[in-house]
Design brief:
The chain has helices spanning 3-15, 58-72, 82-85, 98-102, 139-142, 159-173, 177-189, 237-248, 255-262, 322-332, and strands spanning 19-25, 28-35, 37-39, 44-45, 52-53, 195-196, 233-235, 266-268, 273-275, 280-282, 288-294, 297-304, 309-315. By secondary structure, it is α+β, with helices and mostly antiparallel strands.
């Protein structure tokens, strides 16, 4: 067992980590392990093939899907939201474009404001969660949110922007977002186990999300029953590794469009990072990552081209991934 494998196992034991970890370096898998329970009530262990929720990691999949539609000519980065919304969401400014939404620079009001200081265990949604099963169903929670600033003026992370992107993509393509993500991202990348799953009917390979380190309280009443552009996909260690490989190989969209996704659009000093289009970027260097945090979910997947390091941590309780992330960042220098 390598030193890193030993340290990962020690952190898992010390923190009660429940989830899965994979680290690849220069083409070799140096850690691939799972710990804890995917289903506490039935004592089902997590495995390296368990499907875990990604929360806001979904935004990266949405961004790549939108860029694939740009490559096809179905959308443009300068397509305005209004051109596809018609009379819907009248408070969304006429100047808001697809690029503004991808970069979190649209200025639209957020239906789920992560800067408000609420607890991740709060019941944050204003409508019954079972009613949020399609992107169009979110229009009622997106509506009536006043503009925060003019499009392009500054960066503010917003969930509404990525739900709105889902609505625009669906209307432009005539296909629902889960199908678009599957056809345009998962199929070309070789990601058979990545999907928008319903939280009230999870398959046997999917991990249940828990609110606390111990206990049986799940997140089923805290999240939309089926996610949209801002969250809700489930994936595996293998699929996320395949995503990075395919993305940087130009197998999903052409390299110039990958470069557009990863070109820094904003500094985010409060979080010690930058932001591109749907992807978090390290404050310095070339590390790119996806991140998710919600009730019952914590997740990060990172790729650093200069060192050929890729790692993914998937956890099925709200705070579970962060000690493991700190360990890997320290040991791998990412």
């Amino acid at each position: 067992m390598t030193t890193l494998q030993t340290e990962v196992a020690e952190v898992a034991e010390r923190t009660g980590f429940s989830g899965a970890v994979r680290v690849d370096r220069e083409g070799d898998t140096v850690v691939c392990a799972a710990y804890g329970l995917a289903d506490r009530a039935h004592g089902i262990p997590a495995t390296v093939d368990t499907q875990f929720a990604m929360a806001s990691g979904t935004k990266s999949l949405t961004a790549v899907t939108v860029m694939a539609l740009v490559e096809q000519g179905t959308l443009r980065l300068d397509t305005t939201a209004r051109s596809l919304l018609g009379e819907d969401l009248p408070l969304v400014g006429d100047g808001v474009t697809v690029e503004h939404l991808l970069a979190h620079r649209s200025g639209i009001g957020d239906y789920l404001d992560e800067s408000s200081g609420g607890n991740v265990r709060d019941y944050a949604l204003a409508v019954p969660v079972h009613e949020l099963a399609t992107s169009e169903a979110y229009l009622r929670v997106l509506d009536g949110r006043p503009r925060v600033f003019a499009p392009g003026e500054r960066f503010t992370y917003t969930n509404s922007g990525y739900v709105l992107l889902a609505v625009l993509a669906e209307r432009a393509a005539g296909t629902d977002l889960p199908t678009l993500v599957s056809d345009l991202v998962c199929d070309p990348a070789g990601m058979p186990d990545t999907a928008f799953l319903r939280t009230d009917s999870l398959p046997g390979r999917a991990a249940v999300g828990y609110l606390d380190a111990t206990g049986l309280r799940t997140n089923v009443l805290h999240l939309p029953v089926r996610g949209s552009g801002d969250g809700g996909t489930y994936s595996t260690l293998a699929d996320l590794h395949a995503l990075w490989s395919a993305l940087f190989a130009g197998q999903i969209v052409a390299p110039p469009l990958v470069a557009e996704l990863l070109r820094p659009r904003s500094d985010w000093p409060q979080e010690s990072r930058r932001y591109g289009l749907g992807f978090h970027l390290a404050a310095a260097g070339d590390a790119v990552f996806m991140e998710g945090y919600d009730a019952g979910v914590s997740f990060l997947s990172l790729h650093q081209p200069s060192t050929a390091i890729t790692y993914t941590i998937l956890a099925n309780w709200s705070e579970g991934a962060w000690p493991m992330i700190r360990l890997l960042d320290e040991r791998l220098g990412t």
